[in-house]
Amino acid sequence: MRLLDFIRTRQFLQHLVYAIALGVFLLWGALRLLDLYTHHGRTVAVPALEGLQEAEARALIREHRLRYVINDSIFDDTREKGSVSSQDPLAGTEVKRNRTIYLTTVAMMPEMVPMPDLTDLSYRQAVTRLETYGLQLGVLEYRPDIARNAVLQQKYQGGAIEPGTLVEKGTPIDLVLGEGLGENIVMVPMLVGLPRREAIQELNAATLNVGNEFYLDEEGEDVRVYRMQPDPVGRNHYLQAGSTVDLYYRSPDVFDFEAYLEELLTVPVPLLFGKTPEEVRQTLEAFGLELGEEVFEEGVSLRDARVFRQEPEYEEDAMVRKNEKINIWYRPVEAFELDNL
User: Fold this and answer.
1) E strands present in 131-270
2) What digits encode the pLDDT tens for the residues 151-208?
3) Cα(88)–Cα(30) distance, rounded to whole angstroms?
4) Around 191, how many Cα atoms within 13 Å sit in the side-chain half-sphere?
């Protein structure tokens, strides 16, 4: 029988149909099994795990039919030990079931670092060295010494600490500094409106310590300085280096710091017309303003001088920032009196 005749037989055509049907069935079955294996078209949203302890994260991950691996552990003193610090993929990402979620947790044991040698360094050098080692600046103490602001001793929990001693990262280290030959007086910085951590850094930079801290709304890092004692808002205050400044905090969530600062740091423009130089100084000091340029007409003495012009000019309801300079022009009291005849 020839091949062409065989192909045309009923028996061959039946077997061909069976083969095609079997091939289609096998292909469909293979695709179906592949879908089942890869969970094609079935996804779940990755849950939010940051801040959870490992046991809590594990239960939530299993509930979503996912897997997890802890691939890193970091030291972070702002978070609870053992909690999830970050996750990959991020929360809300759509993934297939059985997808592995990679977690980074906060180390249970604190990271230890060797204590650097700060002796004989300047104050600023010592602060930089502490930051490099991941340590914090603690209390500043001053002692009589010819080397002003030089580190005489480094202390931890009231006692001396030797270089190389292992301490927890983030530990505050107290410094004993030289007082110098003269009085070591510093100006109290303006801290109102600053976040707590930034305010403490500003105080330390001015070689001052934090005294009592009062939380008027809630305790925590997310607060800002509402008031301080001594208060530099009205006038400049000066303290011995190493002195303490008390801080009062309020939460920006419940208190409008922008409006508060605008009101606190602005004053009305004073009317200085006709005042003597001494009266001008007293008035500007009372308003928290500074004396700028003084211009005297030729031949005018301090005793006979009277203000006939000021800049900024006085206007009702006109406001200026505190510490702004006011320029003054004087003329003799005789000419001043003639102008008013």
Assistant:
1) 136-143, 151-156, 159-160, 166-168, 172-178, 185-187, 209-215, 224-229, 238-240, 244-250, 266-268
2) 999 999 989 999 999 998 889 999 999 988 777 888 899 899 999 999 999 999 899 9
3) 32
4) 33
Question: What's the CATH number of domain 43-106, 3.20.20.140, 3.30.10.20, 3.40.30.10, 3.30.160.20?
Answer: 3.30.10.20
pLDDT in tens, 287-314: 888 899 999 988 888 888 999 999 999 9
CA distance 190 to 18: 91
Cα distances from 172 to residues 155, 167, 332, in angstroms, run 9, 10, 62
The two beta strands, 112-114 and 166-168, are antiparallel
Residues in the chain: 341
> Which residue is it, tokens 């979503």?
64
